[in-house]
Each structure stands twice: as structure tokens, then as C-alpha cells.
Amino acid sequence: MAQEVSNGNHNSSTKPPPTPSPLRFSKFFQSNLRILVTGGAGFIGSHLVDKLMENEKNEVIVVDNYFTGSKDNLKKWIGHPRFELIRHDVTEPLLVEVDQIYHLACPASPIFYKYNPVKTIKTNVIGTLNMLGLAKRVGARILLTSTSEVYGDPLEHPQTENYWGNVNPIGVRSCYDEGKRVAETLMFDYHRQHGIEIRIARIFNTYGPRMNIDDGRVVSNFIAQAIRGESLTVQLPGTQTRSFCYVSDMVDGLIRLMEGEHTGPINIGNPGEFTMLELAEAVKELINPEVEIAKVENTPDDPRQRKPDISRAKELLGWEPKIKLRDGLPLMEEDFRQRLGIPRKN
Ligand SMILES: NC(=O)c1ccc[n+]([C@@H]2O[C@H](COP(=O)([O-])OP(=O)(O)OC[C@H]3O[C@@H](n4cnc5c(N)ncnc54)[C@H](O)[C@@H]3O)[C@@H](O)[C@H]2O)c1
Ligand SMILES: O=c1ccn([C@@H]2O[C@H](COP(=O)(O)OP(=O)(O)O[C@H]3OC[C@@H](O)[C@H](O)[C@H]3O)[C@@H](O)[C@H]2O)c(=O)[nH]1
């Protein structure tokens, strides 16, 4: 398949960026960066907020409609003078003065994004248009959390950013896959046409504390099942692979991308690749050796393999993941045990 070669920085006939908000240069606000995080009450978003809030020069505004996120994830920041939380749906326009936009708002678990597919498309298309319109009005830099799902059921392995993907445009996952592909297109069209400073991260499967217990994604399912003593539900055939990135590594990669000079798209993920049976065996061994592994029906269009080529992230961002799967799973177990109210037996 013909593929365009790029170094992560788009360079053909782009306009210069628009003038940013005058506040960015005001002597009173000079030290503060106002950062909007859409979807900041969700899993990755709330960890990103924690990291951004560590920097005393940052003011953070979260907007979220709480479809899959929760105020609980942000409770330590509510009332903090550098933090604001707004209930807002990104499919409606938003007027705020900010310097940077991390645009995460979108359900990420297949169960939730397939629940109301039309809404998922609206979130990806109208939501991203609204955030780009905001970026244009105030001259903000905007980062989109795109996904490895833009590669669909990939025919190239591992996946580099130059691969254009193998996506079913009319399947049950298309609302998300194609939604994110259009979101990427919109980002580049605003960049070329209006000079908006864009960043695109293609995120691969990410896991860690604060995932919804009933989120439906594989790592949270297996950990909750192991703690409850239920069978681990490996969807057939079990030989399909994924690459799992711990959330602190992901947040580090996203911030490096935002702060760096490269538009992307850039893959952010952990290249360690596991079959779902291997993942189940690891969870069983680490969390509850007594549980059984059950094979269950799969859902349509499940990608058979997925592994990021992260050469570009290494070279352009100086980023690579630090936490191996076997070290990350126990960190997540603690959080799940607390929320499930099931302490470890000694
Ligand atoms: N976690 C992963 O493995 C993964 C992989 C690839 C891409 N991503 C992307 O990263 C982002 C965050 O994923 P996550 O795992 O934290 O998911 P999540 O479901 O925990 O968080 C998404 C957040 O967006 C909010 N949201 C959804 N629709 C909204 C709307 N219309 N308006 C406002 N808020 C809305 C939800 O309430 C939630 O708080 C998503 O854009 C997702 O597509 C995640
Ligand atoms: O209980 C389960 C759940 C899932 N699975 C399998 O585990 C694999 C991973 O499934 P998940 O639902 O965790 O996630 P997926 O890899 O399908 O999508 C994910 O990847 C890219 C992101 O953009 C999405 O937001 C994210 O959900 C699939 O092969 C699925 O069949 C199980 O074997 N058992």
C-alpha cells in the first residue's frame, strides 16, 4: 500500500498560527498556562490533570459530561484555586480563554462507544470541530488523543504512523474508528487552513488505577474478575494480541508531545505484545491463582493484532514506556481491591 513518509511534522503549505489570547503575554498572567482538559474526569484525563496540577504555574480547566467519567476521579482538586470543573458536552460550543487544549473527551471502552454510536460520532466530529474552533479563536495549541484503532485490523505489524490502516467503514466499531480518523483529518485541515498548532497522539491500550470497574475493557475485566474469584473471560480465539501501556507512562508521553515541536501523529504505547490468553495467565498468576480461564464469544471486527512501532516517539519526544505489564498489574490491583472492598488474603 502506498504510504506517505513523514517525520511527524507536517510541512506543506501551512499558515502561520493565529495570534494567541493577549493574556498569554500579560505581565500578570505570564507565569500561568491555562490548560483545558476535555474528558478530564475520565481514566487517562484525571491522571493527566494530576500531573498538570503538580506544576504550580498551570491552571487547569476540566470539561466533561460524565458519560464514562466521574467527579470522584478529581475530588482532590475540587476547590483548588488553580482548578475548575465544568459539566459540559463537547458537542456544544465552549467559550473559555486557554493556552492549551488536551482534547480527550470521548468514550474509550468498546462497550460504551458502541452503546450510542451516533453520539460517539458526534463527539468525535462535532466535539473536535468545537475544540478546534475554540483553539482558533484563542490561539491555543490543541492535542487530540487519537487511537491505535485508526489502524483497524492492521495488515502491517507492528504499526508505524505511516500505515493508513484497515478499517471497516460500516461496522459496529466504525463510530469510534472512523470518528477518530475524521477527527485527525479535521486537526490537519485546521492546521493547514488556519495555522492552528496541533498535536496528535495515537494511543495504544492503556491501563491503570481508576479505570471503571465495569468498564468492559480487558485489563479492568480480568483484574475485577480475579479479585472477585470469577472466571477470566477470554474472548475467542484468545490468540489476538494487544500492547498495554501503564497510565503514568502515557501521561508522560502526552505532555512531551504537547510541549514538543512535532505535530504527529505519534504512536504512544508500550510495544510489549501479549495474547489475551497470556494476559489472563499473568493476571491469574499475580492476583488469584485459583481462578479459572473461560473462553467466551467475541464481538465483530475485533482486531487480531496490535503493537506500536514507537521509533518516532523515541526519536522526536525522547519518550519510551518504563513500566512493564507485570509491574503495572499489581499497582492496579490495589486500587481495584479498595474500590471493590475486597482486601488481599494474607
Ligand atoms: N484508554 C485507552 O486504552 C485509550 C486508547 C486509545 C485512545 N484513547 C483515547 O483517550 C481518551 C481518554 O480515554 P479514557 O480511557 O480515559 O476513557 P474514559 O471513558 O475513561 O474517559 C473519557 C472521558 O470523556 C468524557 N466524555 C465522553 N463524551 C463526552 C462528551 N461528548 N463531552 C464531554 N465529555 C465527554 C467521559 O465522561 C469521560 O470522562 C479518549 O479520547 C480515548 O479515545 C484511550
Ligand atoms: O473480558 C474481555 C474483554 C476483552 N477481551 C479481548 O481483549 C482485547 C482488548 O479489548 P478491549 O475492549 O480492552 O480494547 P480494544 O483493544 O478492543 O480497544 C481499545 O483499544 C484502543 C482504544 O482506542 C480503545 O479506546 C480501547 O478500548 C480484545 O481482543 C477483546 O476481544 C477479552 O478477551 N475479554
TrEMBL record:
Record GO biological process: D-xylose metabolic process
InterPro entries given in the database record: NAD(P)-bd_dom (IPR016040), NAD(P)-bd_dom_sf (IPR036291), UXS-like (IPR044516)
Pfam families, A to Z: GDP_Man_Dehyd
Keywords: Cytoplasm, Decarboxylase, Lyase, NAD
Keyword match Transmembrane: no
Region listing for Disordered, in residue ranges: 1-21
Needed cofactors: NAD(+)
Source superkingdom: Eukaryota
Pathway(s): Nucleotide-sugar biosynthesis; UDP-alpha-D-xylose biosynthesis; UDP-alpha-D-xylose from UDP-alpha-D-glucuronate: step 1/1
Catalytic activity: UDP-alpha-D-glucuronate + H(+) = UDP-alpha-D-xylose + CO2
Polar residues compositional bias, start-end: 1-11
Enzyme Commission number, as recorded: 4.1.1.35
Subcellular location: Cytoplasm
CDD domains associated with the record: UGD_SDR_e
Molecular function in Gene Ontology: NAD+ binding; UDP-glucuronate decarboxylase activity
GO cellular component, one term: cytoplasm
Residue ranges constituting the NAD(P)-binding domain according to the UniProt record: 36-330
Its biological purpose: Catalyzes the NAD-dependent decarboxylation of UDP-glucuronic acid to UDP-xylose. Necessary for the biosynthesis of the core tetrasaccharide in glycosaminoglycan biosynthesis.
Family note: Belongs to the NAD(P)-dependent epimerase/dehydratase family. UDP-glucuronic acid decarboxylase subfamily.
The protein, known as: UDP-glucuronate decarboxylase
Organism: Rubroshorea leprosula
